[in-house]
From TrEMBL:
The lineage of its organism: Bacteria, Pseudomonadati, Pseudomonadota, Betaproteobacteria, Neisseriales. Transmembrane segments: none annotated. The keyword Ion transport does not apply. This is Guanylate kinase. It comes from Vogesella aquatica. ATP binds at A13, P14, S15, G16, A17, G18, K19, T20. Belongs to the guanylate kinase family.
Length: 208
C-alpha cells in the first residue's frame, strides 16, 4: 500500500441546520476522516474540552497567530475569531489523512483559494421557518440573536452555487447517509485508489 496525499472535506451550514450533529455522525461512520480542531477566542461551553472541541486562546494570542501567518483561514463570527492551523493541516494531508473542516462560508472560500481540489458540502435546512423553529427550540438565544442568525442564514444560502454538494437536512437519517455517501464516493475515486493501492494493483496486472 502506498501513502497517498489526503483530501480536504469542507462542511458549511447556517446555524441551526444540523451541521454539528451530521458531522459527528459522519466521523463515527468514517473513522478514517479526521476533524480539524479550530482555534477560537470564544469561551468554552459546558462540556467542551480544550484541544478536542477547539483550541481556546485569548484574542491577543489569536491576533499574534494571524500576524505570524499561522492560519490557513480565519474569520470573526459573532464577535469571536475562529481559525484553522495551516501547518497542522498540511502535515496531516502529507501523512495521507483525510481532513474535515467544519467552518463558515468565509473560511470555505479562503481554503478553496489554496486547495482548489477541496470538496465543499453545504447543509441546507428544508426552509427558513423550519430553521427558525429549530433556533427557537434551543431556548438558548435571545430574540435579537435569533433574528441575526436568520439574517446571516439568508446571506450564507446566497452562496450555495459555490459548493460541490448540497444536502437538505429535512430527515436526519437521510441527510446523514447523504453526507457519508459524498465522503465515501470521493475517497473511492480511481486516481486516489490507484495511488493508495499502487503496489497491490500492480501485482494483479499483466506483467509489462
Amino acid at each position: 500500500m502506498t501513502s497517498a496525499q489526503g483530501s480536504i472535506f469542507i462542511v458549511v451550514a447556517p446555524s441551526g441546520a444540523g451541521k454539528t450533529s451530521l458531522v459527528a455522525a459522519l466521523l463515527q461512520a468514517e473513522p478514517g476522516v479526521e476533524l480539524s480542531v479550530s482555534y477560537t477566542t470564544r469561551a468554552p461551553r459546558e462540556g467542551e474540552v480544550d484541544g478536542k472541541n477547539y483550541h481556546f486562546v485569548d484574542r491577543a494570542a489569536f491576533e499574534a497567530m494571524i500576524a505570524a501567518g499561522d492560519f490557513l483561514e480565519y474569520a470573526e463570527v459573532y464577535g469571536n475569531y475562529y481559525g484553522t492551523s495551516a501547518r497542522w493541516l498540511r502535515d496531516r494531508l502529507a501523512a495521507g489523512h483525510d481532513i474535515l473542516l467544519e467552518i463558515d462560508w468565509q473560511g470555505a472560500r479562503q481554503v478553496r483559494k489554496v486547495f482548489g481540489e477541496a470538496v465543499a458540502v453545504f447543509i441546507l435546512p428544508p426552509s427558513l421557518p423550519v430553521l427558525e423553529a429549530r433556533l427557537r427550540g434551543r431556548a438558548t438565544d435571545s430574540e435579537e440573536v435569533i433574528q441575526r442568525r436568520l439574517s446571516e442564514a439568508r446571506m450564507e444560502i446566497d452562496q450555495v452555487a459555490e459548493y460541490d454538494y448540497l444536502i437538505v437536512n429535512d430527515d436526519f437519517d437521510q441527510a446523514r447517509l447523504d453526507l457519508i455517501s459524498v465522503i465515501r464516493s470521493q475517497r473511492l475515486q480511481a486516481a486516489r485508489q490507484l495511488q493508495r493501492h499502487a503496489d497491490a494493483i500492480a501485482g494483479m496486472q499483466t506483467p509489462r
